[in-house]
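Standup notes, structure subgroup. Blocker cleared on the zinc ion input:
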Amino acid sequence: MPSIHRITSAVAGTPVNAYVVEGERDVVVVDGTLTVSGGRAVRQRVIDTGKRLSAVVLTHSHPDHYGGIVEVVAGSDVPIVAAPGVDEVIRRDDSLKEGILRPMFGDEWPRERAFPTELAHDGAELTFGDIQLELRDLGPGESHHDTIWLLDGGATVFSGDQAYNHMHCYLADGHWKEWLGNIESLAADLRPDAVLHVGHGEPAGLDLLAWQRGYIERFVEAVRSADWSNEDRAKADVTAAMGTYLPSEDLRFLMELSIEPVATGLGVWSSDVRPGV
Ligand SMILES: [Zn+2]
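Run returned:
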């Protein structure tokens, strides 16, 4: 059975995981972190195994998962595998992400990014040397396009950001209803003893899905019930409510970035209509 190594990049208070799956002869990397240093750390972990890197697979379309891949593959022709929807969103949004992330992360956000080179569809069972992974394509959810990868017949799940392990969450892509639907399907379909190797935080059991559902519901309710006649107070109230649900600073800025988009999506606030102005 392959062993799993978790590599965390935590540049600028932004912890994100990538994984090295080590088989007898081969190694597969899941996600690449956001940063140059994160990608290099993954690359080094691969080198330390002394085994062949057979593929990099991607869970979803967010830059904190694909940005560092360019450093992981380091100019080699190792295939980078993703679902078509993940590939599409990355290519579509990469220049937008450049504009957001460069000022935040400077040179830690790679100057060039590597994109998927091979596509895989829902249910595909892929063999990379002596490592086999199965793809589940979930569609929109936490990001504009999410997938998960199953190893060991589903006992091990690389679940991307389907559930954060007790860190604040990003809901700004606006698909929270679909995300709740995906959580419900995963809770029903995954093996009850499956271990989720998550994008942010420690591995966990399926009970983490219930925590994630609670976070999303609490956030949406806080945004909906805030008094948007005073925008600043509304935002402060949402932030306070989420601080009560999760008294942690981890990735709080992702949650704060999500308040306006979700408020707009719910129709409780609009950037063009400012009461009293
Ligand atoms: Zn993430």
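Discussed briefly. The longest helix spans residues 84-105.
Next: hand off to the docking folks.
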